[in-house]
Protein: Ectoine/hydroxyectoine ABC transporter permease subunit EhuD
Amino acid sequence: MPDILRGLWITVQATIYGSLVSFALGLVWALALRAPSRWVTWPVSIFVEFIRNTPLLVQLFFLFFVLPTWGLAFAPLTTGVIGLGLHYSTYTSEVYRAGIDGVPEGQWEAATALSLPRRRTWTAVILPQAFRRVVPALGNYVIAMFKDTPLLAGITVADMLFEANSISATTFDYLEPITVVGILFVVISYPTSLLLRALERRLVR
Structure:
């Protein structure tokens, strides 16, 4: 089914770009929540909790249907990437926080003893060690995001589910298209999860 394969490519694109957005914003939220000023931590904390506690589909509808009434309109795929990235960034921020907190206290003390500037401490000492710890968890969220991409069909993104529904509406055959989509999700998600487990074992050595 060429249409479903084309939808698979759209699904993969949404997952990749959404993941990049979530990784970048998640780090921003994690660092902002560690800021010494409450004027920074409180708004970020409220925003993060709001996004976590509202459904992704509602957020996608808001971005796609409400923002254009305010003059902010994006293409469906772009909207989907923003929605996925923003939603999952609130979870990756917690992953980053755990990774940063897991860096031994001695590393902070060593950086202080060497009189390293704060920026240098973060970029050369803390974040490289934190990233090593969080890679497997971030990978798990990539898989979760991949499995959430069918929600993008609700904002007319031509992903796998959208194409399967289009085929079914034409042929009145729902079994085959939907089954193919389900199999494709398993074929991609399961091997990826195995690779992540192997990576996790390698990193914790």
The mean pLDDT is 89. The helical segments are 2-32, 38-52, 56-66, 76-101, 105-113, 118-148, 160-171, 175-203. The longest helix spans residues 2-32. DSSP finds eight helices and no strands in the chain.
